[in-house]
């Protein structure tokens, strides 16, 4: 066969394949909202876009880390960041094997506890019921929670598989946090009506459920809360407290204040607690305690408190619920609702704490029976069980330490503490000795890590859902700094937390 005939045959084959594909896709479009159509188009997009994924896998990992998006076409609909972590790490390892070189950032004090923790998780899962899941048709559930912990560990190694160029560090860090604004899509889609519900397979339906269940009482918008918090994180990372309060750019403070107010629509007291914790830590690490900004902050706090004390009971009920723990007057119904959830948590802890010694040596794991959950929920509906009984079965104890030590015992707890302590040390070294252009970013990362750690330990946490926050934060810090910075590596003057006002660099 000559070359001309071969070229013609290839063209005919390609044309026939494209025609057949067009017919199939056209047929599927006749039912655009069906699961089969969505799956087919998603897989088609993945196949067509695979070269782009190989080229931009690391950027996609950064952009998906805090995004509340699901890969619905996979069993159990895992979060997008989990899938991208596995895919990015696989591509990075493959590139290392093919090219014979690696930019991998290795920190032994972090890698060892993470690897050992993964071993503890796998052994615990194997000996306590396996990795069965509802999506796999198993009677034993809990696989997605194991995936949350293992995905966080894999994600750390994926993030540290290469260094982010210095000129792109701020952009990548911004994408890392701004991806969290996708949480608002769930509330927007629900508000837009049934014609947009076909998008829910990609989104977090739990956020829309929270909106739907509260619309007849005090309307709560969990997705708006998370999206606004992500934007607040970005502003403090990009500009710092000093930049946000810069009187020559008043739009920054107005935008920050607006984001904070809208975050209260979620009805979560954590909106206030998280911002206060972050402000406190970042205020210290920016070296503002002995500057005029302390007086400005105290004055703004007093004025805000006076405003809330005067107008709190006239605000939307969801906003009042977010402020209900403060000593101000709010609607009594809202206060009762907030107090009932607090009492509910105390009841859970009262039952769980005596059980902790049973799981110190060998953890309970995440596996639980779907039949038990169903029967317990039925008993709760009929008033035969307390309202917290189903929570005791699925292991969401609304306490960070309890959701760690009960499933994985002392081995899991000690390994996690090992990782967190050295992660904090890495963040401090990069904050103290990092390059000057990354000063604000490194300052925010250590403040953000401490904010989430304190909140996880003291107020609320769920280990399988929060661990990726800690691995992601330290992984991003290592990637943008090229590892752990040490004394003598920093460019420019060394700034201590107690630096004078004049020594604090102005925001970009």
Task: Give the arrangement of secondary structure elements.
Blueprint: H1 3-28, H2 35-64, H3 80-99, H4 108-127, E1 140-141, H5 143-159, H6 169-178, H7 184-192, H8 205-214, H9 222-244, H10 250-263, H11 270-285, H12 292-311, H13 317-322, H14 332-352, E2 368-369, H15 370-381, H16 389-394, H17 402-433, H18 439-459, H19 463-481
Antiparallel strand pairs: 1-2
Could you characterize what this model shows?
Helix content is 65%, strand content 1%. The protein is mostly helical and 508 residues long. The protein contains 19 helices and 2 strands. α2 packs across α3 and α18 (439-459) runs antiparallel to α19 (463-481). The protein has helices at 3-28, 35-64, 80-99, 108-127, 143-159, 169-178, 184-192, 205-214, 222-244, 250-263, 270-285, 292-311, 317-322, 332-352, 370-381, 389-394, 402-433, 439-459, 463-481, and strands at 140-141, 368-369.
Return the average pLDDT rounded to an integer.
Answer: 82
Choose one word for the global shape: globular
Give the helix proportion (percent range): 55-70%
Strand order of the largest sheet: 1-2
Describe the sheet with the most strands. 2 strands, antiparallel
- Which regions have little confidence, pLDDT < 50, spanning 5+ residues? 491-508
Structural class of the helix and strand makeup? mainly alpha
Rg value: 25 Å
Q: State which percent range the strand residues make up.
A: under 5%
- How many individual β-strands? 2
What's the helix-strand series?
A: HHHHEHHHHHHHHHHEHHHHH
Count of alpha/pi helices: 19
Q: Determine the N-to-C terminus distance.
A: 66 Å
